[in-house]
Amino acid sequence: MSLKSVNDILGVLKQQAKWQEHPFERLLQLWPDIVGTVAATHTRPLSIQRDVLRVATSSAAWAQNMTFGRTALLLKLNQKLSEPLVDIRFSTKDWQPRPDYLQEKTVIPQEHPSYLGNVNISRTQVTPTQKSANTAFESWAKTMQARSHGLPLCPQCQSPTPPGELQRWQVCCVCAAKQF
């Protein structure tokens, strides 16, 4: 009986773990990172048969869009999977919406960071005879000025910013979008 070193035993165990790894489970974990979060909500991998990945899509437009980019997806997936894929097929045939507990929740206006509450601003009524581009702009400018009165300023651009945006991003939404 020969004695093996701990490193040899660990090497054998590591190889066995690779054999037991299921490529489809690994693919399900990688899918949102590979295709992106938006595409992941409209696509769902179903199975791997004969090295071909079958993916359900929420609409024919998503199936077509994903088919156009399938070669790039194959390259990304094959870099991360232990067994390479030959092709990807997209179809709406087996699409089923996610259960309610997995659905993304809609944001009600009061929970949105840009929500200002009920801003009661007296609106000046413009009669049709007075309506022109200048009076419309002046009315809009007064309304915006009244709404922004008392709001904190964005530290970057100094524009009035809803407090929720400053709490969430520390800047206004325009400056936050520029950072991304």
Structural features, described:
Among the domains are: 22-96, 2-Layer Sandwich (GMP Synthetase, Chain A, domain 3), CATH 3.30.300.180; 147-180, no CATH class. A three-stranded mixed beta sheet has the order 1-2-3. It contains eight helices and three strands. By secondary structure, the chain is mostly helical. The mean pLDDT is 80.
Detail the topology: elements first, then pairings.
Elements: H1 6-20, H2 23-35, H3 37-42, E1 43-49, E2 52-57, H4 60-68, H5 70-80, E3 87-91, H6 133-148, H7 163-169, H8 173-179
Parallel strand pairs: 2-3
Antiparallel strand pairs: 1-2
Helix pairs in contact: 2-5
What is the structure about, briefly put?
With 180 residues, the protein is mostly helical. The protein has 8 helices and 3 strands.
Provide key terms for this protein.
mainly alpha, 8 helices, 180 residues, three-stranded mixed beta sheet, 47% helix, GMP Synthetase, Chain A, domain 3, 10% strand
